[in-house]
Specification:
Layout: H1 38-52, H2 60-79, E1 80-83, E2 89-93, E3 96-101, E4 104-107, E5 114-117, E6 125-129, E7 131-132, E8 145-146, H3 148-151, E9 152-154, E10 160-171, H4 174-179, H5 184-201, H6 205-209, H7 213-231, E11 235-246, H8 252-321, H9 323-339, H10 361-373
Antiparallel strand pairs: 1-4, 2-3, 2-5, 6-10, 7-8, 9-10, 10-11
Helix pairs in contact: 5-7, 8-9
């Protein structure tokens, strides 16, 4: 009698080896593994023993021993499953979750009692949205093909932007991952595209293209994780990476011209503001210096006038006491002040009669020689 499907799992596989098809191999994709008839195996083993023994005799002990070994090997494969180092074995008993199996060789009841699924819980998965072919499964970069139906999005200021990004994710809860969502990869892809469209639709195009790329990645990451948690998907988003954020290719040249003009406008505004910041303080400083100079000149004139008035009052007071003496003193002081910087000597005709005249002939000769040289 042929065996039923006793590979110990569905979906994620559950038998010996990575294929999950047991020791006998696996049939076509999607079909249950084909396992041989036990009676046919025993019969073939007996025929081979008869041929090997001399005279065609039958050694019952040897036949029983070989049969026991064959049954032990078959039982070993039926009751054990190998869980890979990056896998977690999820055991279902009659369709109900029973337990989880850690990596290694583990015991389980054969199908249909128990089934074992082996999702890869430590592997980081990668999904490209808006493009295809940026990296192969081996990590080698290849030609990139743009998928415009995924990448073209409308911003909050009614501009169209071409966004390509990559989502990295892993399995965080194997039970939820296996039984709460039907197609995990498509679910992550559609949730990522929806989250990116929502974030882009709430933002202007200029920040997305320049300084808010990291902010956009964080917003998409948070929204994706919140949505997947609401689905109970058992998936953890590890990272969202923006690859390309550009205007559509049909208008990218005109858009770049507009951005260059805006950059020139901003540069000229900054230069004008810098000039204003330099000239205005200088003008204010000059105005303050002139005001302080005028104030000092005013103070000087006022104080000088007060001093002259006080001196005149004191002189007038002395003049009233002795007019003749004061008048003569004022005359002498005035003459002294007038002639103090002159090189002339003036002698009174009455008091200077005893002064001997002196003629500086040497000085006159020097003057004649200077005039002759000229």
């Amino acid at each position: 009698m042929p065996w039923s499907n006793q590979s110990g799992g569905g979906g994620g596989g559950g038998g010996w080896g990575s294929g999950g098809g047991g020791p006998w191999g696996q049939g076509p994709s999607g079909s249950p593994p084909q396992q041989p008839d036990l009676e046919d195996i025993l019969k073939k083993s007996q025929d081979r023993l008869k041929q090997a023994l001399p005279g065609g005799g039958m050694n019952k002990l040897l036949v029983l021993l070989v049969s026991a070994v064959v049954l032990a090997v078959i039982g070993f494969y039926m009751f054990t499953v190998r869980v890979g180092p990056d896998e977690l074995g999820v055991v279902l008993r009659f369709g109900k979750h029973e337990r989880d199996l850690t990596p290694g060789l583990r015991f389980r009841w054969p199908y249909p009692i128990e089934q074992v699924y082996l999702p890869k819980v430590t592997r980081i998965n990668r999904i490209e949205i808006g493009m295809r072919g940026s990296a192969s499964s081996s990590g080698v970069s290849g030609p990139v093909r743009d998928v415009s139906e995924e990448s073209l999005m409308l911003t909050g200021d009614e501009n169209i932007v071409d966004v390509d990004f990559v989502v990295f994710w892993r399995v965080s809860n194997a039970k939820d991952y296996l039984f709460n969502i039907q197609n995990p990869r498509n679910t992550v892809k559609e949730v990522g595209e929806s989250a990116m469209r929502e974030v882009v639709g709430e933002s202007d195009i200029q920040p997305i293209l320049t300084e808010e790329r990291a902010k956009t990645e964080i917003a998409v990451y948070d929204l994706m994780q919140k949505t997947l948690d609401a689905y109970g998907a058992g998936i953890q988003i590890t990272q969202v990476q923006l690859q390309k954020v550009d205007p559509p290719s049909a208008v990218i040249d005109a858009f770049r011209d507009v951005q260059a003009a805006k950059a020139d406008q901003e540069r000229l505004q900054n230069e004008a503001q810098t000039y204003a910041n330099r000239v205005v303080p200088e003008a204010r400083g000059d105005a303050e210096r002139i005001l302080q100079g005028a104030q000092a000149y005013k103070q000087q004139i006022v104080e000088t006038s007060k001093g002259e008035a006080s001196r005149f009052s004191q002189v007038y007071k002395e003049y009233k006491v002795a007019p003749e003496v004061t008048r003569k003193r004022m005359f002498l002081e005035t003459m002294e002040r007038i002639f103090q910087d002159t090189d002339k000597i003036i002698i009174d005709s009455q008091t200077g009669q005893g002064v001997v005249p002196y003629l500086p002939l040497n000085e006159l000769a020097k003057g004649d020689r200077k005039r002759g040289g000229q």
